[in-house]
Amino acid sequence: MKKALVIFKNTNDLDYLIESCKFLKDICGYVIKPVYMLSPALIDLSKKDLKEIVNKIEDDFFKNLNIKLRENNLTDEYISLIDENSNSIKELLKLCDILVINEKLGLNNFLLEILKKLYKPIIILKGKKLNLKNIILISDDGTKVNKSFNDFFLNFNNQKIEKIDVLSWNFNNLNHNLIDFIKSKDIKVEAYNYYPKKNTINEFVEKINEREFLIMGNLNKNFFLEKVMNKLGVQILQRAETNIFIS
Question: How far apart are CA 85 and CA 156, in angstroms?
Answer without folding.
Answer: 28
